[in-house]
Specification:
Number of helices: 6
Low-confidence stretches: none
Shape: globular
Distance between the termini: 36 Å
Largest sheet: 4 strands, mixed
Length: about 180
Amino acid sequence: LQPQRLARLDGQGQQLAGDRASKTIALHRAIYEASDGTARPARCVIHTHSTALVARSLQALAAGRDAGSGDDDLLLPPITPYFVMKVGPVPHIAYHRPGAPQAAQAVAQAIARHAAQDRPLRAVMLARLGPNVWHDTPAEAMAVLEELEETARLWLQVQPPPLDEDQIEELRRSFGAVW
């Protein structure tokens, strides 16, 4: 990683220096803007094509669960306490080609919908593509991504029953979980 090659953009998303910015810059800007003013504003966004998460997305689609079909269309159920506490709900956003403005709009709508329900997001999953996670710093965003990827691996291996509402409520009370 060479610092001079990092894409540098101004506040309006215009390229200032470095290598050409990602085609998903509009999506990342939408995450910053939509999450600003929520209890979990984005200060760092990480986007990957994590294997287990894409596999879970494909599994859900193969089972007939269309991504983005409703408020309860989450990629993964609450199967571990750390997933509930560190990540929270992860909406499964309908497929759009990489860089499509519709993806940015769908993500912004999901962020707004969950914030209105006092369930601010830390992550979304783009169907067939990969997750976008955010937090205050790169290290904190990476920790969210790691917990999300490990939860997807567990789901693909075991598909355990989710935590029940009493267990989730205890995590809310004890640790401030937003599930």
